[in-house]
Design brief:
The chain is of the alpha/beta class. It has helices at 10-18, 26-36, 51-66, 83-96, 113-122, 131-139, 156-161, 165-172, 192-201, 232-243, 256-268, 282-294, 327-334, 358-365, and strands spanning 41-44, 76-79, 104-107, 126-129, 150-153, 182-187, 206-208, 220-226, 248-252, 273-276, 299-302, 315-320, 344-350, 371-372.
C-alpha cells in the first residue's frame, strides 16, 4: 500500500514526500487506516518498523481536519518513557509536520525549566512529554488537558518497567473521557498489564499485532560468538578490524560500570568512544547523540537507555558486548541498525555469565541466532590498557569514616524520577532481642 492511496491533507502528504516515504510498512498499513476512521488502536510495534510515523501521520491528520486554533491548552498529547524518545519523536514531527500549522513542544526534565513553561504559555498544539515534568506543570496549572483530542502512549510496556505507571494513570484520569478523544497505544508487547491499561482508558481499541517472524528487521545480519569474559575485548578488536568499520558503531552493555570500562579501553586503543547512560546530564547526552549523528563520534557505548527511541541513520554495526537479560532489549538494540532500507550487522558476544539469557532471546525472536566459535586469528591480544584514573580525594572509607558507600536513589535510565513512591532508601536494622522469643522460635525449658 502506498501513502498516495490514503486520504491525507496536502500538508501531511508533502511532509511524507519530504521524508522520502512512499510505501507503508506492515505496522503503518494496519494502524493508519484504523486511526483515520477515528478508532482507538492498541498496536504491538517494535522499533524500526515505522510506528512513530504511523501515529504522527494519524494525529496530524485529525488535528488539521478538526480546524481548532492554537492555544496554551494542547489538543494532542504524546507520552513517552525517556527523554531521548521525546527528542526523537519531536525530530520526526518536525520533518513530517513541516508544512502543518501546528506547534509541537517537547516537555522533559534536565533542560531549562522556565523556557519550557513559557513555551506552554505562548501556545502549543501538541505536547510530547515524559510523565514527571508534565505532572509538575499540571500541578502548577500552567496548562490544562481539557482540550485533548488525541492521545498517544508510546512504549507502554517501558512505562511499566521504569516505574511510571502510577504517573501515567494520574495523567490519564485528568484527560477528557475516552469517548471524547482518540487514543493510540504502542508497545513492544501487548501483554496482560498493557491490555488492562488499554481497556481501562481506551474506547474499545482495535488490536494490531505483528507476527513473531516480523519482530526483527530482515536486513539485519545477526551473528553470535561464544567467548569467555577475558577474551571479549581482544575479540572485539579483532572483529572491528575484520569488519573494516568506518561508520557509526553502537556497543551495548548491561551496566554503567562496564560502559565506562569499555569506553576507556576503546579510547586507549585509538578508537574514540563516549558513554551514553542514565547518569549522564541531559545536555551532554543530547550533545553526544548529535556528535554521533553528525559522524564526529564513531563509537558510542550505551546502556539500554539508548536501545529505544534513538534513530540514527548510518549505524552499520551494533555490538552486544553484553548479551541483554531481557529478550525485548535484544530486539531494540539491534534495531538501531538497518534503518531506512539500509543493511546492517548485529554481533553479540555471549560469555559464561550471560549466555543463559540466549534461549529466551531466541524464543522471543522466533529463530536461532547463527553462532560461531572464534578462531585464534580473530583475537588481537596485543592491545593498550587505559591508564589508571587518580583516586578521588576525600576521607578514607571504612572504620571512622562519616560517610559510607551509598547507592543512588531510584532513578530509571531515563534520568527522570517517578513521581509516585519512594525508592533507594535504607532500612535500619532492628537490634536482635536476647530474650522473650517470638512466634516461630523454639525455646528451651524454663528453669524452676
Amino acid at each position: 500500500m502506498k501513502f498516495s492511496d490514503l486520504d491525507l491533507p496536502p500538508e501531511v502528504s508533502q511532509g511524507i514526500s519530504d521524508a522520502g516515504f512512499t510505501d507503508l510498512t506492515p505496522v503503518q498499513e494496519q494502524t493508519i487506516p484504523l486511526a483515520l476512521e477515528g478508532k482507538d488502536v492498541a498496536s504491538q510495534a517494535q522499533t524500526g518498523t515505522g510506528k512513530t510515523a504511523a501515529f504522527l501521520i494519524s494525529l496530524f491528520t485529525k488535528l488539521l481536519k478538526s480546524g481548532s486554533r492554537t492555544t496554551n491548552n494542547p489538543r494532542a498529547l504524546i507520552l513517552a518513557p525517556t527523554r531521548e524518545l521525546v527528542v526523537q519523536i519531536c525530530a520526526d514531527a518536525k520533518e513530517l509536520g513541516g508544512h502543518c500549522p501546528l506547534v509541537v513542544q517537547p516537555i522533559f526534565g534536565g533542560v531549562d525549566y522556565e523556557k519550557q513553561r513559557q513555551a506552554l504559555r505562548d501556545g502549543v498544539d501538541v505536547i510530547v512529554a515524559t510523565p514527571g515534568r508534565l505532572i509538575d506543570y499540571l500541578k502548577q496549572r500552567v496548562f490544562s488537558l481539557g482540550r485533548i483530542e488525541s492521545l498517544v502512549i508510546d512504549e507502554a510496556d517501558r512505562m511499566f518497567d521504569m516505574g511510571f505507571i502510577s504517573d501515567l494513570r494520574w495523567i490519564l484520569r485528568r484527560l477528557p473521557d475516552f469517548d471524547k478523544r482518540q487514543t493510540m497505544l504502542l508497545s513492544a508487547t501487548l501483554d496482560r498489564r498493557v491490555m488492562e491499561l488499554a481497556y481501562e482508558f481506551m474506547d474499545i481499541p482495535e488490536r494490531v499485532t505483528i507476527e513473531p517472524e516480523q519482530v526483527t528487521a530482515e536486513r539485519i545480519e545477526q551473528v553470535l560468538y561464544h567467548v569467555s569474559q577475558k577474551e571479549k575485548f581482544p575479540l572485539l578488536l579483532g572483529l572491528l578490524k575484520q569488519e573494516a568499520v568506518t561508520e557509526r558503531v553502537l556497543l551495548f552493555v548491561n551496566t554503567k560500570v562496564m560502559a565506562e570500562r569499555l569506553s576507556d579501553l576503546l579510547n586507549a586503543n585509538d578508537l574514540p568512544a563516549a558513554v551514553l547512560s542514565g547518569d549522564i546530564p541531559q545536555r551532554k547526552r543530547m550533545r553526544l547523540l548529535q556528535q554521533f549523528k553528525d559522524g564526529e563520534l564513531r563509537f558510542l557505548v550505551a546502556t539500554d537507555v539508548a536501545s529505544r527511541g534513538i534513530h540514527v541513520d548510518g549505524v552499520t554495526h551494533v555490538f552486544n558486548y553484553d548479551l541483554p537479560q531481557d529478550p525485548e532489549d535484544y530486539v531494540h538494540r539491534i534495531g538501531r541498525t538497518a534503518r531506512a532500507g539500509a543493511d546492517g550487522k548485529a554481533i553479540s558476544l555471549a560469555d559464561e555469565d550471560n549466555v543463559f539469557h540466549l534461549p529466551d532471546i531466541e524464543e522471543y525472536v522466533g529463530r536461532k541466532i547463527p553462532s560461531e566459535f572464534p578462531g585464534e586469528e580473530d583475537f588481537i591480544w596485543d592491545y593498550a590498557k587505559p591508564a589508571r584514573k587518580p583516586r578521588k580525594s576525600g576521607p578514607p572509607r571504612g572504620k571512622g569514616s562519616s560517610k559510607g558507600s551509598r547507592g543512588t536513589k531510584g532513578k530509571g535510565e531515563s534520568g527522570e524520577k517517578p513521581a509516585a513512591g519512594k525508592t533507594g532508601q535504607r532500612r535500619r536494622r532492628r537490634p536482635r532481642r536476647r530474650s522473650g522469643g517470638s512466634s516461630g522460635e523454639t525455646q528451651g525449658p524454663k528453669k524452676n
